[in-house]
Amino acid sequence: MDETVAEYIRRTVLKIPRDEIKMMLQKWGFLSEAQLQTLNFHQLKDNISQEVVQLCEENSADIKQAAVLDIIYNHIYQNKRMWSVYQMRKTGEELEYFDLTDFKKKFKRRLRSALKNVTITFKEYEDNAIWIRVAWGTPYRQPNQYKPSYVVYHSQTPYVFISASVLKSNLPLLCQALIVASNYHDIREMELRSHSLNSLKDIVFKRYSQNFQTYCPKPLQGKAVEPENVDLRIVNENRSEKERIHRLNQETFGDGPQPILQFAQYKLETMFKSSPEMDVLDKKEPFRCLVKFSSPHLLESLKSLAPAGMADAPLSPLLTCIPQKARNYFRIREKRGLLPESFLSP
Amino acid sequence: ESGDPQRTALLLRKAWTLYSVTPLYRFCRGRLRDYARLLSAFIAAERQKGLAVEVGVELDIRVTLSSLPELQGSEQDQPAVLVQLSSRSRASPKNSEDKILWSGCFCCVYGDDLSENMPEDFTCLPLFLANGAEGYMSVVGNWFQKTFDCIFRRLAISPFNLSWMVAMWAGCKVDKAASAVELVFSVPRLPQPLDISYAIHPEDARALWDTIQKTPGEITQEEVDVFMDCLYSHFHRHFKIRLSATKLVKVSTAIASAHCDGIVKMLHSQYLSGVLMLLTELAISQIQ
């Protein structure tokens, strides 16, 4: 077995938390059950990984098999990576039959014709997700297995999720290979990024609970905003205001769990306006700002601002439109013309 | 106060943790070398006691104390005192450069409020800047406290003072391409914490400040309030969020950046003195 492959397998196993190693090796299926039985999982991880490498040596593992183990690890720990969303477009409306074998063949051929040294690995999952791992080399160097790109493609949709490696120069080639293989003619990057791959899917596949203006599933009155106070001397003075805020929040954010995003960024190029008595800046040029919101769970956080008294309800559409518009990067310019208080989000 | 740019340059572009220090009793500027020796022995003793500051290779720690006369504001100010801990690994060759492990600087820039009416035995150096491992700060701080009967306290910076800083610094003229004027707000007590970074193009921030400031060279509380209100209302117009209800935790400009935990970075030599003057004032109000 190649020593670079051995080292790669050793390092991959080292990344896995100790009590998950057995499960992942089983999922991998490269080592037999009998071989797995011989492993002692109660020793130092260093030693476990050495033993795994020994067994792989017995089975003459090559880089292709090692790459599959890496996909399995990254599929389970997908939230460690940052994912971007790309949308593909085709001219006709015909729903073509998707041939997986054909897709893989075309993808490999397109990449290999441009770059001799690449490692390409596929793995299909039950939810119709095709995971693709690409390790990039140069005409003179073997592929760098430690900085691969990952692509997740749901063949029934025009969306591709990419976690690129640091080598951004390979992105155009990757995109080209994708459209060639999937019979689309165009691909563009959406302004949408998150660590949570499932949330990105929720957003673009519209799987989160949307709110419909006309449909009201529960009666509005009598919905408890907070637990009943046992002490009757404590009265909630702003009860009706609290209920109004709660209702508006429901309408804008919906009832269900929010997709998980870590940030939203707004490039503001709008005019600065102040109340006339403030004798301040009155330029004819935009007041240029860059605003970035960050949170482990941004949408939940924004949803809680109005009830906490820190924001008006309803919250600005610039924030609430994130899932519907499927983007978390925005450039806001002043709307030309009549209404001074309105905004244009492109 | 330009002085020797080389020496004050060591203050630039480092993250300094701020402390206030009460006046030092019987601190004698002529005895800096002696103090360095004593501090060195103290550090060695602490390390032997097992209160080791840095685990690792055998290190010879060298202590130097020096005066920085470039860092003072008025005539009454005491010149700054620089404390440096450097090391040379016993393994490395004799002529290799010393590596600076930790730096600390006592200073006072326009600290007249404190130093006037101060009895002769006391030296006023109310502001202390520390850079390096916390362990060293602890040991050095202990020695100074024991030796000169003074007290070190971490100096936090309130949102009120951060607003002053950002308003003041946003108005400064900077020659080359300046970095953005950034305000960072934190909303910790939500079910999911939220951080908001609000960065304004430096020219636009300065233009705004210029229309607010009435007298060049003078800043009033009212002007700072108007500046902040303008920024808050521009933000509210877009997002319907009231930034004034959140906590301002950090401000950043081309001149300097400051964090509410009392950590600053000074970026521009021309305004170094001005920043230190402001920080001296904060230190003094914590002492008094």
TrEMBL record, chain A:
Chain coiled-coil ranges: none
Classification via InterPro entries: CENP-NAC/CAD_complex (IPR052011), Chl4/mis15/CENP-N (IPR007902)
GO cellular component: chromosome, centromeric region; nucleoplasm
Annotated compartments: Chromosome, Centromere; Nucleus
Superkingdom per UniProt: Eukaryota
Keyword Methyltransferase: no
One family name in Pfam for this protein: CENP-N
Signal in keyword set: no
Major subcellular location class: nucleus
Gene Ontology terms: biological process: CENP-A containing chromatin assembly; chromosome segregation
Keywords annotated in UniProt: Centromere, Chromosome, Nucleus
Similarity annotation: Belongs to the CENP-N/CHL4 family.
Protein name per UniProt: CENPN protein
Taxon lineage: Eukaryota, Metazoa, Chordata, Craniata, Vertebrata
Encoding gene per record: Cenpn
Automatic annotation (TrEMBL), chain B:
Taxonomic superkingdom: Eukaryota
Pfam families: CENP-L
GO cellular component: chromosome, centromeric region; nucleus
Presence of keyword NADP: no
Nucleus keyword on record: yes
Annotated compartments: Chromosome, Centromere; Nucleus
Keywords for the protein's UniProt record, in alphabetical order: Centromere, Chromosome, Nucleus
Major place of residence: nucleus
Cross-referenced PANTHER family: CENTROMERE PROTEIN L
Recorded family membership: Belongs to the CENP-L/IML3 family.
Protein name per the record: Centromere protein L
Organism: Tyrannus savana
Native organism taxonomy: Eukaryota, Metazoa, Chordata, Craniata, Vertebrata
